[in-house]
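Sharing in case it's useful to others searching the archive later.

Someone asked me privately for the predicted structure of Glycoside hydrolase family 97 protein, so I'm posting the question and my answer publicly. Question first, with the sequence:
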Amino acid sequence: MKHKKQYKKRSYLLPLFFILIYCNAWSKDTLQVVSPSGNIAVKVWMGKQLQYQILYDNKTILAPSSIDFLLDKNRSLSYNNTIKSSSIKKVREQIISPVPERRRVIPDVYTILSITFKQPYKVDFRVYDDGVAYRISTMFKDSIYVNNEVAAFAFPGTPSAYFPQVKKREDADIFHTSFEEEYPLRRIDTIADGVIGYSPILVAPESNPKIAITESDLEDYPGMFIGGTGSSTLKGVFAGYPLEEKSTDALYSQMVVTKRAPYIARTSGTRSFPWRALLIAKEDKDLPNNDLVYKLGAPSRIGDASWVQPGNLTDEWIIDINLFNVPFRAGLNTASYKYYIDFAKRFGFDRIMMDAGWSDNNDLFKINPDINMDTLVAYAKEKGIKISMWTLSKTLDRQLDSALDQFNKWGVNFIMTDFMDRDDQKMVNFYHRIAKACAEHKIMIMYHGAFPPKGFNRTYPNAVAREGVLGSEFNMWSNRITPEHDVTLPFTRMLAGGFDYEPGLLNNATKKVVRPISGTVTSPGTRCHQLAMFIVYDSPMQIFSGNPSEGMREPEFMELLGNLPTCWDETVITDAKVGAYIVSARQKGNDWFVGGMSNWTERDVIVKFDFLGEGNYTATICKDGINADRYAADYVLQKDVQVKKNDEMKIHLAPGGGFLIKLSKQ
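And my answer, the predicted structure tokens:
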């Protein structure tokens, strides 16, 4: 018996010994912080570099990973540095969003570990029940050069990732990108050193939880790309500061960097740097509803934001103003835009967009001679419709003050600016400068050719929309858009903020149909797949990109689409699987809207109405028609269906299908 007891004692000590070996960098100085519910734990210690590890339900989901900040004059975070002190604080607050993409009241509940060092550095770790974030702060008296930043993300095992790889342009370096790529799933260890993607990157281990890597509160600093290492570790990669630029000679000219500095930023020596964020989801359906990136954004800087009133609008770019059944020659002219105004008025849209071509791209005051702005402004005002304008970013920057004054005179309170295609420090500062100037003129702004919002929409609520997504316009010239891509976006790109996909194409195609890439633009998947995007995708400024002349022939469908809200009191993801399908429910006042989308796999979904309040609701249902698998524009529109809390409804989705349900409280 004595020998048996000794054996048992050693059997407990042996695994502990191996744990200590695995975490050999840990010491008595290892710090630990846990999330409010205790499901996530973060361990932090100082070795040759600052290291941290994340555990979920006591299982390591991020192996020891390095943090460092490499400055000039050998003043790195790791050089001759030790932890001086630390503190832990529990925070329970809430954020009221003036432009609620998902919900108006956002709980902000976390535990924060604040670490100070012998050198003038501080690092904060916030641990939520659905994610972890850290940021570096410096306390140097003078300005600093940041040569580089070490942000490593080491994963146990051999996980895969939904990785939007940046493809190098012929005329520029790898850091010039419009942030419009697919999200193929690939093993992390097959991503070689030198290959980069833009965040969010969604990491999918062999078993959940999934982990998304991104950032928030990006200001006066370059954005973080995610690079491969040929192993199960990913790393942050940053564009060098632009020392020299040249203007491209193109229809949509832009500034291209021709020489970069050996440093990534020159900035204030006393400041906080962007948050490095990891969103953690035990179930796929938890991802599209994660507010971590917004919560990490800096609070609003525009004061009273009641004037920020986003909504829905039309745009003519994708269909090339290819109107028909009209008594005028369609094109960039006064008559066509008056038609758009009439269409918007009839079907409930708030405004129209006048896209590229209303003026000279390089001079906003050189208006297209076929357009009479005074006539259009007066006509829109008479109809109660707003006009919005496209701008080329390089031109807007040069003519900023005078252009914004002119927009104010026309009553324009929403503009788009386009073709930035970078996120180095200089370009990031452009975003802040433009949003600030627009806010001073009470103008809302949308960025195209842009990186994801990453909390910017909290700092500048007037920045109501952002592209940075492979969206509808690619149907004009490619076959890159697929229903699988569409149902991957809510779990990847959307994690960093809403996006301007521009749904609503009314010509729809099955998988077998060869779609033209010129002339009449078609979309893969069904009509209801397009309709559901208005509910599934976050975007306070939703743009209908279909052809109004086609819409005029389907008034009931357009009345439903044109009157959909774009901001929400609450959002619930009832069921979802990355790349396969998603069902989202959104509340606006007493009403609810449910949207569902599928990849090319035909399926039935069960919609459970347990999110409803008490009482009866009247449902309007738009779903795939019985022949939608053969003719993708086929749909059924049902009205006056009675629904109450805890009811269930089975809905059939055709290949590439979708549905929308509007629930009105009786």
